[in-house]
Known about the structure:
By secondary structure, this protein is an alpha/beta fold. The protein is 42% helix and 19% strand. Helix 6 (128-138) crosses helix 7.
Amino acid sequence: MTQKFTFAVAQRDGRARTGVINTPRGDIRTPAFMPVGTAATVKAMMPESVRATGADILLGNTYHLMLRPGAERVARLGGLHKFMNWDRPILTDSGGFQVMSLTALRKMTEEGVTFQSHIDGSKHHLSPERSMEIQALLGSDIVMSFDECTPHPATHEVAQKSMELSMRWAQRSRDAFGDRPGHALFGIQQGSTFEDLRAQSADALRRIEFDGYAIGGLAVGEGQEAMFKVLDFAPGQLPQDKPRYLMGVGKPDDIVGAVQRGVDMFDCVLPSRSGRTGQAQTRVGAINLRNARHKDDPRPLDAECTCPTCRNYSRAYLHHVVRAQEMIAGMLLTWHNLHYYQELMSGLRGAIRTQGLDGFVADFHARRAQGDIEPV
């Protein structure tokens, strides 16, 4: 790949930005939502269906792919894009978040993390250098530096030690990544909810120099109010001319609030996970298709939605297949949810371009507060 990874902001509305990330495998329109393809698949979806929702980029998971089927095997089979039949950009996380969640199965040192597989108990070692090697074998377009995701809550002392370790690992990640034209490496800001630690982290990442910057250590149980307080200052601590990625977020109102505060990229398992458990996101909020009130309802999930689920199936049918635990239920609801998320991102981009974000956000909240009106 000879084409460079670039980012340009086209328009601003307050702190919100809209722009384009250029990669050799295609452009990513921002603000962007990345569907999560943990194990080289967005659950219940075909890759062409994911693309049809409007997604420009997917997320893959280093931890899960290194355990099964193995990064070396994926490389031998032509790389992750070919393996999963997705020819557009892929971002892979570093494995740090999953390792954090394996508290009882891991041992962490300055060198890295040794842990037991949740699949078969086998031992593995993950370090900044190994994480970079795995992500290179997968062939991902955007690579995340290896970090420790600081758990919440954390004292200032604990958060500082964790952040400083992540910054040392960020430098090692940068060194191990090397020169890979057409591929990008993102650094991850840590510091829990402490503004001074977030600033120190941002300064360290700036000195190392990355192609983009993520805000890590949020959406780990702190709640939306605390998250937004951090986002009131954290994005502004990062370079203005690079994309900003809020990891693991989130609910529609989380995304809208984060876009207002200057975030460009998001990922979350919510649209696919909730789709598989009978929940749909709509303009008037979340709808639980397991509820009996839907069993005779001929309406679509969302009368304004143009996804195949809303065009072709009634709430009564969706209620039936959810309750019957048919596979099509997860397929149809996941497709709808991903379509809704991409439509939300498109609406945010358009509102920023026309300097109408305040009105868009006010309408968004008013309609969701209205709730799902039952038929009379």
